[in-house]
Specification:
Blueprint lengths: L1 E7 L2 E6 L10 H15 L6 E6 L11 H4 L8 H19 L5 E5 L3 E2 L1 H8 L2 E5 L3 E3 L14 H9 L1 H10 L3 E2 H6 L5 E3 L4 H13 L3 H14 L5 H16 L2 H11 L10
Parallel strand pairs: 2-3, 3-4, 4-6, 5-7, 6-9
Antiparallel strand pairs: 1-2, 7-8
């Protein structure tokens, strides 16, 4: 139901491969995604992850058959919270991964699919992409799968309220205009654009990339400017002692590309 491959040295790609069901998430698919991300986390050679999908839809969200079933007997609350926790944990694992995650959105991202996209560090989209928080239209809260946390931090609280309370679809152009996605391209160029961006990131030193993500994620929740600066100072002082920093300075002075070795 998913494919995982290495595109370049250090660049992994996970592809949702359930196009016949609009890449809707089932519990087995979520378990497979979480297991694959955990394996990538344990692989020191992986420095960046691209998350994408096959077909015309990125992810239609939760496969409602997981909840509704045959309609004869509704799941009890214990089953419901277990389902919700498993889906929500996936968002944490994407967001908290040690490497940057690029969501390459080939089509609509709905509900939990939008949650996955928002949990990524960077989103690029084909012109066919759309964003939809459909839960509010079927009697559920739009606050699910980390959406109420990530969305206002990306587009601002006022716009997030409007999107979540109406449940309206946001097309690719609006998503680009509001910063929900950073790059917009034609569908046949999406994977090339994702790989180009990934290579720009992994051309930098492993320490710099890893700790830039960690500092950014931590300082989104910093209680004060001084607390944010204290973390920056700590990370930067360690960086000043690395061989990659010295190599970066020498390469700059010699007007050549740096040869970072990760130490």
């Amino acid at each position: 139901m998913i494919a995982c491959d290495m595109l370049d040295s250090g660049i992994a790609r996970i592809t949702l491969d359930r196009a016949d069901a609009a890449n809707a998430l089932t519990l087995p698919l979520v378990a497979q995604l979480r297991g694959t991300i955990a394996e990538l986390q344990d692989d020191p050679d992986v420095r960046l992850l691209i998350l994408t999908a096959r077909g015309g839809v990125f992810c239609a969200g939760l496969d409602l058959k997981e909840i509704v079933g045959d309609g004869e007997e509704a799941p009890d609350n214990f089953a419901n919270i277990d389902l919700q926790e498993r889906f929500a944990a996936l968002m944490c694992e994407i967001s908290e991964s040690r490497f940057p995650v690029i969501a390459a959105l080939n089509g609509p991202a709905v509900g939990a699919g939008m949650g996955m996209a928002l949990a990524a560090d960077i989103r690029i989209a084909a012109t066919t992409a759309r964003f939809l928080i459909g839960a509010v239209k079927i009697g559920l809260s739009a606050g699910e799968c980390g959406i109420s946390y990530h969305l206002p931090r990306i587009v601002g609280a006022g716009r997030a309220f409007e999107m979540m309370l109406t449940g309206r679809a946001v097309d690719a152009e609006e998503a680009h205009r509001t910063g929900l996605v950073t790059t917009l391209c034609e569908p046949d160029m999406l994977q090339d654009e994702a790989l180009t961006l990934a290579r720009q990131i992994t051309a930098n030193s492993p320490y710099a990339v890893k700790h830039t993500k960690q500092v950014m994620r931590s300082n989104l929740e910093a209680p004060s400017l001084r607390a944010a600066i204290a973390l920056e100072n700590h990370v930067q002082c360690l960086a000043l002692g690395t061989a990659d920093f010295r190599e970066g300075c020498e390469a700059f002075a010699q007007k050549r590309p740096p040869d970072f070795r990760g130490h």
